[in-house]
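We both want to read discrete structure tokens more fluently, so let's practise on a single case. Would you supply a protein for us yourself, any chain you care to pick? Would you write everything just below, so we can both look at the same thing?
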Amino acid sequence: MRNVWILALAMASATAGSSAMAAPPIEEYGRLPAVEHMDLSPSGRDLAYIAVDGDARKIVVQQVGGPVVVAAAVGSNKVREVAWLDDDHVLLTVSTSIVIDPGAAIAKGEFFQSLVLNITTGKAVQIFRSQQKILHATYRWYGLAHIGGRTFGYFGGETLQGGGAAMADFDRGVNYADRGIIDLYKVDLDNGDPEKVSGGVARYYYDWVVGSDGAVVGESSYYGPTGEWLLYTDPASGKPIQRLIDPAGDVGIVGLGRTEGSVLVQQPGEDGDWSLIEYLHRGGPGVAPFHGRSMKSLLRDPVSRLLIGGVTNDNQPETILFDQTLQAKFDKLKKAFPGEIVELVAATSNLDKMIVLTTGAQDSGTYFLVDIAAGKAEAVGWLHPKILLADVGEVRIVPYKAADGLAMEGVLTLPPGRAAKALPLIVLPHGGPEARDYAGFDWWAQAYASRGYAVFQPNFRGSDGYGKAFRDAGYGQWGRKMQTDISDGMAELARQGLVDPKRACIVGGSYGGYAALAGVTLQQGLYRCAVSVGGVSDLGALRYYVAQTYGVESAATRSDALYMGGGSLSETSPVHFAARADAPVLLIYGKDDTVVPPVQSTAMQAALKSAGKNVELIALPSEDHWLSREATRTQMLTASVAFIEKYNPPD
């Protein structure tokens, strides 16, 4: 008899139809998805997801077509993952911003914790919670095995090298001086007992691949001082089958390949571009299962965890399944959603039952449960239930060339109900900078479009998904060609008559926030206003912070050095050019930001204020770098819209 924890929770819903006369309130765009992280159990029996219930969020397990089995509050924790491990166990991963040492230069860190729910017994186990010699945090989940009638999960854990006995949850105390090592632990999912399977070594970063029998079939090590990366597909032999020098930490184990015992690795392929390479157990030449294509995500069998396909990193992502029978099933399903982006989220091994997420020109995000045998697809969740069809702005791809001739493209979101001619513009460059934007529903872009603005998201050089050469073209180009790539895209929109270049503001988060600040300091005469959300203002200070956080020998430190370039970083730091700011600036930051520290925003405010410039500063309480909380995300949107409308009105 399966245990029912709490009474049924009704999911938020929406009906298709005409939009109201006015656009939805801006708060609707700032809300966290009403339903997210949906997953299907391996047998297709149950759904698991995060759902909104009033002001609270819950993890919900529900029988397909039946009652709710679990509905438990997740509190203020930031949910990062919900995943079925097998038909009985659900993994919930959350993160929290924790004060490490209030007096230290690096005072906070973002830590992840994992909880496993057994929906049959009703018991829950927090991984490492009862351990005194392991930090109460998890560093990635590596696999599952059923051994001797028990179920085991494999997790990375930080072994404490100091006394350990006084360890409270996340309280490193004096033990932090004896820096812990990340080891691989085998954890009994029903009682929480851990057993160390493989050990890390100081100054090395280790990664593993675990087979369905619990054996470690792949292991890699990365040595910070030299950037040397080694791959072992027979770890017991101690002999690596691959050795690469990887300055920026780009190479790494991805997981199991297509067969038991194989290992999938991201590394440069034969043509020098990034590729996923599959190595067989105990060596042999590597093969490229996707023939060198860039992949946005991978698809795995829910039982064996073997690779069965993936989704390409394209503007219109393509789902590739190695088995032609499975490919035919998905392709037939996709035809039922013409003009939509259809993402395969989860499925049974034979794809007879699937969860897909659709977005498109008039779709703010819908989860569908597909039953092939019954020949039906049923909507089971809406990400933004109050943003209806006619409220979603048209999204299109705009190709253009940079001033030096490099071909690139950007995503243009148009305001609903307005002709695409001489529109007021918001330029919204992405963070990273090694990231990219897609032609799908983007809550931030759609929020501004709903207020009457065209929104342009340029995939400038250095962005992901366009090959290694395009990525590498961004090295040394913070504030230089990466910056002019953005304004070159705006010029192309103006040339086509789509936007009015004299009515533009620039907005961004993280690296995008840096680009916003650079757009009104390093560049001039382009924008009426700038909004920086958790943006970088001082490159030298950020590089020092990263080195202090991850180590001077870390891949993160070297990656920053490659992107930011050599020479004096003050030459490309907006904080040193505050006196040149030629438009009002709004600075927004999260008090719990552990990626770009708050001082990057406060120092920029001080510099602008000292120079007599128009500047506003907003601190978001309990918010991190990723705008993970609904109240503060809505606060950011509300403040930025009011600021933009003040200095660049849409009419």
